[in-house]
Amino acid sequence: LAKASGRNCARLFDPTDPQSSDESENLAALLKIAIAQNLVSLVYQPIQDVASGRFEAVEALMRLKMLDGTLVPPSLFIPVAERTGAILELGRWAIRTVCNELLVDDHVRVVSVNVSPIQLKTPGFAASVATILGETGVTGNRLAFEITEGLEMEMHSDILRCISDLKLLGIKIWLDDFGTGFAGLSWLRLIDFDTVKIDRSFLHDCGTPKGMAMLQDIIALVRNRGHQILVEGVETDEQIALMREFGIDRIQGFRVGRPVPAANYQTKKPVHKRPYLRSA
Ligand code: C2E
Ligand code: MG
Ligand code: MG
Ligand code: MG
Asked: For the EAL domain, which residue ranges apply (predicted)?
């Protein structure tokens, strides 16, 4: 695919395709220099409380720009970063950047950061987070970590220990993309998640009676276990009305707000034309 699509598209590859290993290696090399070269940045997507209409939190999402300016989606570079271990440095960079860009002032109350199970499994991860909090003067209760149930079936005891250490720092633990993996239900049994984010595919499939029943079942399951419910991928006013009717706690999606750079949150009113101000 990469070869056929020519030079300009050579970087749009599928990391699971063995033929694309060249591009995967290029990307792996790029990830090593990405932070030093300012090729990575964060954008922030608002999370709205349904009852009050208030913007309670934002989710930090990583962006990677190639040297030629092409944007690579996280669905492509995160798996490569996880495979090579670059996710460890990128992950620490993301947490530090969130603290510096949005949490040192009162711009936003809570920022959620996606955290890979690889990070949670790595000894010293919680300690490195504590160091970042100490150095930036941010309290842990301003952070939430989103964990995605991956193909990873087992819940390592290391992960459970790390999660309890993070909770001691005051960091909330959310379950991301619930319903898409195989492990979600067993994770729900093992970890007391503050919030469960229901994957956007459930909302998008609710146009059929079967899909609607599925959405209602999954909401009931999460609610009966006492978790806060956040539904992702809200794109229309009808969906917002439905979420209100279902008593969903919080919503996120393009209809609520698109991911935007930190500068948009650094003044009282969103300023969309302001250039992105890099903090470090
Ligand atoms: P996620 O954590 O589930 O993030 C939500 C994704 O859905 C984002 O894609 C966001 O732009 C997109 N989205 C939000 N609202 C809507 C909507 O209304 N409709 C549709 N169709 N999409 C919507 P993005 O930024 O491309 O990120 C993809 C995934 O990459 C994330 O999924 C997350 O799993 C991963 N990711 C992103 N940043 C990081 C990071 O800093 N660390 C780690 N470990 N993973 C990250
Ligand atoms: Mg997420
Ligand atoms: Mg995710
Ligand atoms: Mg998600």
From this structure: 24-273
Ligand nearest to C-alpha 178: 4
Contact 228, 195 (CB under 8 A): yes
26 SS3 class: helix
Tell me the two tokens of residue 172: 């909330």
* Structure ipTM: 0.98
The reported pLDDT for the residue numbered 70 is: 92
Low-confidence ranges of the chain (pLDDT < 70): 1-20, 150-155, 267-280
Amino acid at 92: R
**Would the CB of 94 count as within 6 Å of ligand 1?**
yes
CA 68 to chain centre: 26
- Read off φ and ψ for residue 207, nearest 5 degrees: -70, -20
Residue 271 near residue 70, CB atoms below 8 Å: no
pLDDT at 185: 82
CA of 31 to the centre of ligand 1 (A): 18
Question: In whole angstroms, how far apart are CA 245 and each of 135, 140, 240?
Answer: 43, 33, 9
